[in-house]
């Protein structure tokens, strides 16, 4: 398949919520080709009027990276239509098998420096059957990016080793620490700069950098109030529905 054909398959799966086989199940795919597929998918979104809103990092947890057998982070793009307002609603029926992670987000200044920090939720949703994928597959699938929610922005201070809780309907379902994000979420900026330079992503002033997950992802179902609490940064929430 061509890069365009692979991107179109993933784009269709995203639109319909119907899973597809791994792209690598039929033929090998290099990491460079996978990023080309990812960029072509973003071009399809931009062609429908979406605009770039930032970038996100994946495999920032040492445990997750080891599980996938990788030694470096991956990078994906965020668009404006992926953003859900704090306290807003996410329709789980639009996804294949959506999951949620509590994160730390940064806002970039005009020179792509970090100017503010916020608690965040990222909804990931691999478009592949059984939530199974290789490194190249997940990169082509824009690192499973689906939606994100940002809490209140605050001035950047110490952000390492902050306690993180993920709650469903007020009950804690996962706990972690910002130390699980590259050891210190501030390391997300040089990591993003390095990956952006290598694979052609844009770090724009005023855009968002999702630094990575502080806990394992938890499956979403309809009718749930999802909240992330990050000590010292505050909280952020979203409600789920179906249809």
TrEMBL record:
Residues 99-237 form the Fumarylacetoacetase-like C-terminal domain. InterPro entries: Fumarylacetoacetase-like_C (IPR011234), Fumarylacetoacetase_C_sf (IPR036663), Hydratase-Decarb/MhpD_sf (IPR050772). Keywords: Lyase. The keyword Translocase does not apply. This is 2-keto-4-pentenoate hydratase. It comes from Amycolatopsis halotolerans. It comes from the Bacteria. Pfam families: FAA_hydrolase (PF01557). The keyword Lyase applies. PANTHER family: 2-KETO-4-PENTENOATE HYDRATASE (PTHR30143:SF0), ACID HYDRATASE (PTHR30143). Gene3D superfamilies: Fumarylacetoacetase-like, C-terminal domain.
């Amino acid at each position: 398949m061509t890069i365009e054909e692979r991107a179109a398959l993933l784009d269709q799966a995203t639109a319909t919520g119907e899973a597809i086989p791994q792209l690598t199940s039929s033929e090998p795919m290099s990491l460079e080709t996978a990023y080309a597929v990812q960029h072509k998918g973003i071009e399809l979104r931009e062609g429908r009027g979406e605009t770039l809103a930032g970038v996100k990092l994946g495999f920032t947890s040492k445990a997750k990276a080891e599980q996938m057998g990788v030694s470096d982070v991956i990078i994906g793009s965020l668009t404006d239509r992926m953003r859900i307002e704090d306290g807003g609603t996410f329709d789980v029926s639009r996804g294949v098998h959506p999951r949620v992670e509590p994160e730390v987000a940064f806002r970039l200044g005009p020179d792509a420096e970090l100017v503010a920090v916020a608690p965040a939720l990222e909804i990931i949703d691999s478009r592949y059957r059984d939530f199974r994928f290789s490194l190249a597959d997940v990169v082509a699938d824009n690192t499973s990016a689906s939606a994100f929610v940002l809490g209140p922005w605050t001035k950047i201070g110490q952000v390492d080793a902050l306690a993180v809780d993920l709650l469903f309907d007020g009950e804690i379902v996962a706990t972690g620490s910002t130390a699980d994000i590259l050891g210190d979420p501030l390391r997300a900026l040089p990591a993003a700069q390095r990956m952006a330079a290598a694979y052609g992503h844009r770090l724009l002033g005023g855009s968002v950098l999702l630094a990575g997950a502080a806990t394992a992802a938890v499956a979403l179902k309809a009718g749930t109030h999802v909240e992330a609490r990050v000590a010292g940064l505050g909280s952020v929430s979203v409600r789920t529905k179906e249809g």
